[in-house]
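Repro:
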Amino acid sequence: MSVDSFSQDLEKGPSSSTTASGPNKSKSLPYQDAGAVHKVKSSFRADDDNIYINDEPINKEEFMHAFGGTLTVGARKQTEQSKNYGDPVPAGLAAFSCTTFTLGLIEMHAKGVTHANSLLGALLTTSGIVLLITGILCFIVGNTWASATFLMFGGFWSSYAFILMNVGGQIEAYSSTEEFL
């Protein structure tokens, strides 16, 4: 007979009837009984350099880095490359926002425009090339998360423009133009 894994909780331990070798053996698992609950009081405090959890000092810098960046709202730490180049993120956000906004207007049929072909220039230049260049610049200045984001969106918008231009003959794969759109 197997031990019921759902009744085990690492914090509480197995039920008192569960044993390591099965129900007929007397050797119990090295967990505490589920009925014995110990309350542990945790303490948190901080100073200028450390955060203390149960009086254990942890340097604040260890909490600052998540996903390759810092959790501070202020400016990023200056690197040699970021001193030579400006911050490329605002240009990338502007390029993405402009094309997304205009595509949203077309999807809402603003001014009677129903096909995104009118955005080919914006898709290729503003959101294609500009986002690819912005992603490369973000990589150079050390902003990895923004680099990956802008490179992926630059590739997406460029490929969307190529689909609308029928590069590779995607329209011929469908029985009608309405099915393609």
